[in-house]
Structures are given as C-alpha cells and as structure tokens.
Amino acid sequence: MTFGNLLKLEVGKVFKNIYMYILLLLAMVFGSGIIISINLYNGPFDSKNVIGVYATLSLLFLIIICVKNVLIDFHYKTYYFYFTTAKKRIHYFFVRLIMNGIVAVLFAGGGAILLIINQIVNHQIFELENIFLLIAEYAIFTTFFTCIFLFVTLFYRNVINLLILFMAIYLILPSMFGILLRIPNLPAWVEKGIKIIPFYSVPTYVPTVDLSILQIVTVLLFILLMSFYIVYKIPKVDY
Amino acid sequence: MLALQDVTKKYGNQVALDEVNINIKEGEIVGLVGPNGSGKTTLMKILNGLIVNYEGEVVRNESIGALIESPKYFEHKSGLYNLKYFNDLFGTKQDVGKLLEQLNMDHYKKKSVKKYSMGMKQRLGIALALTAQPEYLILDEPTNGMDPSGVREVLRYLRRIAERNNIGMLISSHILSDIESLCDKVYLIHNGKIKKEHRPLVGFAVEDKDIGKIEHILLDMQDASITDNGIVKVPKSESKKVSQLFNEHGIEIKQIEEKSVSLEEMYFDMVEEDYK
C-alpha cells in the first residue's frame, strides 16, 4: 500500500459520494433564499450576509462528512488493513486531511457560486479576495476538526460515542465558551483569550468568514502542533 | 519467517501474552488453539503490526494478509467492490474474479456484503487477505459460521494455496478437528502462555524388509521415528516429501495413518490443569 494508491482511492471516494453532492445542493438551495430576498425586497441584507445561511448549513454538513470520513474505517474495522506499519498509519492521517480538505474546497466553491449568482442577479459586486478567504477558512475549518477527531481516535475508538463527542465539540463547546463571554465584567484579557481558542473561534467565525489574523495564526499553530503529535503518536498506538 | 521471540504483552496489570515464542516458516500451516481470552487475537495482532507496544522480539515480514476479528468491510458495497478496492490499494494485479471463483463466491460477487451470511463474509475476508499476494496469512477463526461442506472446501483451498504459493499461515480456530487435519504444527495457548507445541504425525505402514533402507533415507530428518510394528512416523509437514522419497526408492506404502495423539485430548488436559 503506497501513499499514492491510498490517496487516489480515497479521493475517488470523495468525488463519487452522491450524498456529499446532495448536501452541497441542499445548502445552496437554502442559502439562495437570501439572494431571492435581496432581489425581491431589496435587502435588508448586505453583501456580507449573502452566504450566511449557506455557510451555517454547509459547515454543519462539512462536519458530518469529516466525522464520517474519520470514523468509517473504525466502524467497518477496515483500519486493520491500513494500520499494519508506522508508515501506513502516517499515510492514513495525511490522506484523511487531504480528503476532508478537498470536501472543504468543494463546499467553499458552493459559496463562491452563490456570490457569483448574487452579483449577476442583485448586482452586488463581490471581491475575488473574499473567494480566496472563503476557501482558506473552509480548509482551516476541516483541517482543524479532522485533526481533533483523529487525535481523539488515538485514545478511544467506540464509534457511537465518538459520533456524539465530535458533534458536541462542534455544536456545544462553542456555545459554552459563548456563555462564558456573556459573564458581566469579564476581564478583557479573558475575553480576548477565549476568542482566540480554536474550539471557539473556528466554529463561530468561519461561518461569517470573519477569522482575524490572530485567530488564523492561532488555529494554524494549533493544527501544526496537533499534526506533529499525531505523526509522532500514531505509530505507537495499539489497535 | 514470521516469529515471536519471548514476547510479553500487558494491558495494565493484566498479562495477555507471557514470554511467547512461536515461528511460522514459508509454506507451513500453523494452528493456534486456546480458550476464549487466552491471547490468540493479541498474538495475531502483534504479528500483523496492529499492536506495537510489547516486550520481546517480533520477526515479521511486511507481506502479511490477515483476517482478524471478522472485519465488516464496506458492507453497503459488493464483495467485488471490496476486493477491487483492496486490490487497488495494495497495488497488486490479482485477478479478483478468479479469487472469488476459487472461493466459490462467484454468484455473490455483485451482492452487497451486508446481505452475506457469516460464512460468506469469512470467505470474503480470506479473499481480501489474499489480495495483497502475501507471503504469510494470519486467519482468526476463518471457518466461523460456515457449513460443514464450506469448511472442508475452504480448508482444502488453504492447504492448496499454502503448497502452491508457499504461503506460511497462522490459523486459529475452536474447531480442533479442522486444525488437526490442516496444520503442520499446532500451538496450544492458555492464559497468555504457549503450553504445548503439537506436531501432528503421519504414520506410514511399510514392509519389514524395507526398514533398513528407510532408516538410511530418513537419517537427516528430525522427528522421524520407526515403531516396533513397522510404522514410520514423520511430521505432517514432511509427509509429502517422505511419500515421494519412498516412491523413488521403490518402498511400498501399505497404509497411511494420520491420527497421532489427539489434539482434543491435549486441549482438554491443558484447560483442565487450570481447574485442578
């Protein structure tokens, strides 16, 4: 089993996944509601809100696909075929990152299409820079969560419990940080600190493509450290 | 060669394997029998590289095909899809259609795996383990869920590919008669320790006049012996070679006897020892 073989097969599976296209289409259909609103009622949305609904839905779908891509081999126990040497285990990690990265780019593409449609229909001009930012933040989003999910599977592999845990990391954890932020008279440094925690910043600011430079740097650093740890640890784990 | 040398594996304070020594040569079929929880799966996972934290030495070849703990495969896909997928993954040019045919799965190849019976899934597991064209096969209860004729058919197939492709195999099973009939050597494992190494012998009944000639022919063969009543006993792994040698030297074989000490007796002795 070579890296190339695994990558080719797994990326092939991504592109052949009909459910992914259905989810993408669904997000686009619901997301286009705002474009219709702008067209019929002339607002109240500004161009920044155009893909708001799409982003919320598409990121939720992205998380579901990421979770599926990470857990499927543990569910089917096919990881027995991939994890027989240290090299194969590391290949597996990077292939999962690339797979989910490709899904992210496809979903970012969906957002870009909506922006283009909005420009044609409502004459709200979008900047190319926003498209790049959209792709970059979606890629950061999936890479971050794929790393987290793969990190957890180093220690625990009950698929059903992991499914619940992963969805909680995405859906509940940011809300808990949000509650902390609503505490009155919270020191500014604490507030700033919470806002740069990737578990809060990524699910909260990526939907509005609003990650600050500091937040992006923090997430990238976090991804880098976690990747190093996974590459170091994965050959040492008993499966 | 595939071997464990003084391998110990602990899960916390619990010892799963205790200074285990085993070896499997190319073309040799080795059995592994023991009660549930005796350490069979742990041993197989260590050999296959899934368990990496242990004490001792493992001599392993990367070219290993394995069927451990009945994987579910990609259940919603067909058997053929699964085989093609792993064939592409391993980059081998195995004729998957032929492989399915040899395992008598031709009619089921386009059905989704979730519709397979347990026995069919096991056959698919064996086929998947073979897609990598391995030099060694590790099979954890490969005949589990198969009907008696299916068991016989699969065991014959395994024997055939071991001989033809010189594949070394480690097979675990609770069906002792299967193991005894198939294996050249059997390890009995209990509480993480290898308690016995059993080598099934084959007895050749020959004419008394040939005994002197036979003694000369089998001079270099370890574990070969001649009983007082003229039965030549050789390890099962050597029986084919011995049969050929007798043929070449014009020695007439009156009868071939495969029964030696019953594996079942040895197994129950081992297990009951613990209750005493």
Automatic annotation (TrEMBL), chain A:
<feature type="transmembrane region" description="Helical">
    <location>
        <begin position="131"/>
        <end position="155"/>
    </location>
</feature>
<feature type="transmembrane region" description="Helical">
    <location>
        <begin position="213"/>
        <end position="232"/>
    </location>
</feature>
<feature type="transmembrane region" description="Helical">
    <location>
        <begin position="162"/>
        <end position="183"/>
    </location>
</feature>
<keyword id="KW-0812">Transmembrane</keyword>
<keyword id="KW-0472">Membrane</keyword>
<protein>
    <recommendedName>
        <fullName>ABC transporter permease</fullName>
    </recommendedName>
</protein>
<feature type="transmembrane region" description="Helical">
    <location>
        <begin position="53"/>
        <end position="72"/>
    </location>
</feature>
<feature type="transmembrane region" description="Helical">
    <location>
        <begin position="21"/>
        <end position="41"/>
    </location>
</feature>
<keyword id="KW-1133">Transmembrane helix</keyword>
<feature type="transmembrane region" description="Helical">
    <location>
        <begin position="93"/>
        <end position="119"/>
    </location>
</feature>
